[in-house]
Amino acid sequence: ASTLVLSDPLTADGAAPPATQSAVTAAAQLGGDAIELLVVGDTPPSQVPVGVAKVYHASTASNAVSETIAATLQSVVENKGSYDYVVGTSSKFGSTVIPRAAALLGVSPVTDIIQVIESDTYVRPMYAGNALAKVQAKDAQKVLSFRPTSFDKAPLEDAGAIESVDATVFDKAQWHSENVSKSDRPDLGSANVVISGGRGMKSGDNFPILEALADKLGGAVGASRAAVDAGFVPNDLQVGQTGKVVAPDLYIAVGISGAIQHLSGMKDSKTIVAINKDPEAPIFQVADYGLVADLFEAVPEMTEKV
Amino acid sequence: MRILVGVKRVVDYAVKVRVQNNTVDLSNVKMSLNPFCEIAVEEAVRLKEKKAADEVVAVSVGPKQCTETLRTALAMGCDRAIHIQTDRRTDYVDLQPFAVAHLFQKVVEQEEADLVLLGKQGIDSDCGQTGPMLAGLLGWPQVTFAAKMDLEGDGMMVERETDAGTETIKIPSLPAVVTCDLRLNEPRYATLPNIMKAKKKKVDTIAADDLGVDLEPHNPVLDIFEPPPRKEGITVESVDDLLDKLRNEAKVLK
User: Fold this and answer.
1) Where is the Electron transfer flavoprotein alpha/beta-subunit N-terminal domain (chain B) (predicted)?
2) Structural domains for chain A
3) Closest partner residue to A109 among B92, B129, B242, by Cβ?
4) What is the C-alpha separation between A38 and A8, in angstroms, rounded?
5) How many Å apart are CA B156 and CA B169, to the nearest integer?
6) What is the mean pLDDT of residues B100-124?
7) Testing the interface with A: which of B16, B100, B129 to mutate, by most A Cβ within 10 A?
8) Tens digits of residue pLDDT in B179-215
9) Which domains does chain B have, with CATH numbers?
């Protein structure tokens, strides 16, 4: 009775990514006998989270489609061991692969888990995090995904022996191209500091004032859905119920009113700062420190003094 | 080409739900068409308008009142609707995506659909499971989080949101399941004449219990509770004051 963790795509250095480090921590709380890791992609991992007893690598093209990854996961689950738990992350990658794999395995999955209560009982948010559900997984085999920000990252160590397994290629969908925004800043989902802008930024041209502060603090830049909808910044910066969920040590919300949908993506941050000129903005209700000020003055001043 | 589009009736996005007696209180709460399903309906109707689709069929699972939600989809331009009726709560408590995906599978097979368009998630359960599970059950290709769709030959090119940006997936030939994300389109408002016309469109009702699908949740919800409140914050007077607090009280800055 062991646990198989499906890795998210490896980092540029070939290591298991932060979301998967968190999934391994969560997997350890399930209490299975051993944790095994499956990597599907063009290279085997150089580093894996501590706690992983065995690593499988299924070799595919560099951008395997989700159907291939799900089918490969199914085949490893059915052929390699008797897995009580099949685990992934609730990143966009995990949210695409895990439910499909669950359907192939005939299991009803529990996704986006934020807490493990017992080996079969978990907590997951609903209604943009305004309600938390305690859920018991009754299928014999459990297919689960964990919210990365809710679990500590297991440290990495060099990967030992890696067993090659066959990929199951699905050819009715083909990867064609990608458009990835390159940034030297840390990844939004795992940064320790996040500075997000909202409609109050007025224009995408004003985001560099947030970037300057982010660079000084070693942080990432995010945005509210309002800022994304207004076309200020691309969608992959969106923090919220339908964007990325972040929980950094420090979250600075700039010119963000604080719609429910946004709060659900950041309210688990350790310290929240809100800068907004409207003292009635709902964001102040979740902020640890609120500053009622003109952001175009306050943010540059912060950047200068920090 | 026949498109099946999923239409979920959910608590309106502007409502902050109340947790009461270990559940989410749904009495007297405004219900609406799930915003992501609205985007799916819009995309399907546009394909019809471009003559790429012959027929758009809206499908909803839920109580009697779902017919109102289906009428909204019909007023936006769907041709007819199928209501899979059940009195179970559809927000995960009594009916879960695993069962919904199996119900949709039956309808997709009966209707011989070529394309299924769904929202990327319901804003009640926040699961986002139905699309990829349905595709898995059917053995069809899937594209989740679609941001742009272009039909091409017998298939299509779909740009989708990823964790790092976007990627484009080629589906050489249909059928396929696509789940729709925010940027795909901006849904239209139904006009009064179209709302009137929608009243005459056909809505077939099927009892969910008659479809031979196990509706019982495999993952029973034992309890629903409110998240712990954050401790009350304070207002600071100046940037200096803020930086002092961040350094010496919260200790998140050096």
Assistant:
1) 21-215
2) 2-165 (3.40.50.620), 193-305 (3.40.50.1220)
3) B129
4) 9
5) 8
6) 98
7) B129
8) 999 889 999 999 999 999 999 999 999 999 999 999 9
9) 2-227 (3.40.50.620)
